[in-house]
Design brief:
Helix content: over 70%
Order of helices and strands: HHHHHHH
Strand content: under 5%
Shape: globular
Radius of gyration: 23 Å
Number of strands: 0
Structural class: mainly alpha
Distance between the termini: 32 Å
Number of domains: 1
Length: 193
C-alpha cells in the first residue's frame, strides 16, 4: 500500500510540476494566494493561541506574540485583498513575493559561501560553496528581472521542486516494489541457523 501511494503521489507531483513549468505565471498566482491564506490562518491561530495561553506567559511575550500574529493577519489580508481587486494588484503581490524570495536567496547564498569558506578543513566543503554560489546567482537573477519576469519566478521554483519530488517518490516507490519482489528470494537463499 505504501509503495503504491508513494508512486501515485510521485506521479501527481510530476504532473503538477510539469503544469507549473508550462504555466509558471498561473502557478505563481496560485502560490501567492496560498501564502496569503497561510498568513491569514497563521495570524488567526496565533491570536487564539496567545489569548488562551496569556496566563502562563509573561506580559511582554504575549504582547510581542500578538504583534507578530497581527502582522501575519495584515499580510494575509493584504495579499488576499489585492487578489480580490483584480489582475494588476494581484500581479503586484506576486512580484513582491518573488522579490522577497530573491532577497532571501541572495542572503542565503552569501551566508553559505562564507560558511563553506570558513570550513575548508572539512571534506565536502566545496559542495557548500557550490550551493552558496548557485543560490547567490539565483538571487541576483531574480532581483535583476523586470516586473513581468517576476510573475513566473514562483511557478518555476514550485514546478522544479514538484518535478524533483515526484521523480524521487516514483524512484522510492519503485524501490519498495523491488524489495518486495526480491524479499522472499533473499530469505530462502540465506543459510539456516
Amino acid at each position: 500500500m505504501l509503495k503504491s501511494f508513494a508512486i501515485a503521489e510521485g506521479v501527481l507531483l510530476l504532473v503538477l510540476g510539469l503544469l507549473a513549468l508550462i504555466f509558471p505565471v498561473v502557478a505563481s498566482f496560485g502560490v501567492t494566494a496560498v501564502v496569503g491564506i497561510a498568513f491569514l490562518v497563521g495570524g488567526i491561530v496565533g491570536w487564539i493561541n496567545n489569548i488562551f495561553r496569556r496566563q502562563g506567559l509573561k506580559g511582554w511575550l504575549v504582547f510581542w506574540r500578538l504583534v507578530v500574529s497581527t502582522l501575519f493577519l495584515v499580510a494575509g489580508a493584504t495579499i488576499l485583498g489585492q487578489f480580490a481587486e483584480g489582475g494588476v494588484p494581484a500581479a503586484t503581490q506576486v512580484a513582491a513575493l518573488s522579490v522577497a524570495i530573491g532577497i532571501v536567496f541572495l542572503a542565503e547564498g552569501i551566508l553559505a559561501i562564507f560558511t563553506a569558506l570558513s570550513h575548508r578543513e572539512f571534506q565536502g566543503w566545496g559542495w557548500g560553496l557550490t550551493n552558496g554560489i548557485v543560490t547567490l546567482v539565483l538571487g541576483l537573477l531574480i532581483l535583476s528581472m523586470k516586473f513581468w519576469g517576476l510573475l513566473s519566478v514562483l511557478g518555476i521554483l514550485v514546478g522544479v521542486s514538484f518535478l524533483f519530488s515526484g521523480i524521487d517518490l516514483i524512484a522510492f516507490g519503485s524501490l519498495l516494489h523491488g524489495e518486495k519482489a526480491h524479499g522472499p528470494e533473499l530469505q530462502s537463499s540465506a543459510p539456516a541457523s
